[in-house]
Design brief:
Blueprint lengths: L2 H7 L6 E4 L2 E4 L2 E2 L6 E4 L6 E4 L8 E4 L6 E3 L2 E3 L4 E3 L2 E3 L3 E4 L7 E3 L2 E3 L2 E4 L3 E4 L2 E4 L2 E3 L2 E5 L3 E4 L8 E4 L2 E3 L2
Parallel strand pairs: 1-4, 2-5, 3-6, 4-7, 5-8, 6-11, 7-12, 8-13, 11-15, 12-16, 13-17, 14-18, 15-19, 16-20, 17-21
Antiparallel strand pairs: 9-10
Amino acid sequence: PSIQSAITACASAGDTVLVRPGTYHEKVDYLGKNVVLRSIAGPATTIIDATGQMSSAVYMEGVGTGARLEGFTIRKGTGRTIEAFFGGGGVRVWSSEGKGPTIENNWIIDNSGNFGGGMLIRGGARVVGNRIVSNDAAFDGGGIFVIGIAGNFSTLLISENEIFNN
């Protein structure tokens, strides 16, 4: 019935949740699981809409390189409060080990937060082939805001994205 219930049901690292086209009015929390969340028809028809959730639209705390987010429009997230740091309206990656997920072929549009309106990354991630457009941050990082861990950005890749009007 929801993307979140499918992630909750995932038992093993490497499980894949395939999502049919539609608009899903919810926030999605990976629950620290290294799972793949993939739309079957792409971002034009598969939408995660966090209107009214008062949270990041997609929250990826404690996930590693096995976690993936692919092929969604992600909109109307407003960030999430962790350690008094409000940000990551669209996608929030919070990694304590510097290893993070792959975020690929998504449209991250019309999200907000104090920092990282479109996306906040603490630690590492692979951010490839996304459209990050029309997001807003009250302070810094309208499109993307990155926080390094002890200055280590060796596991961060931001490549081939369209980032504008943030």
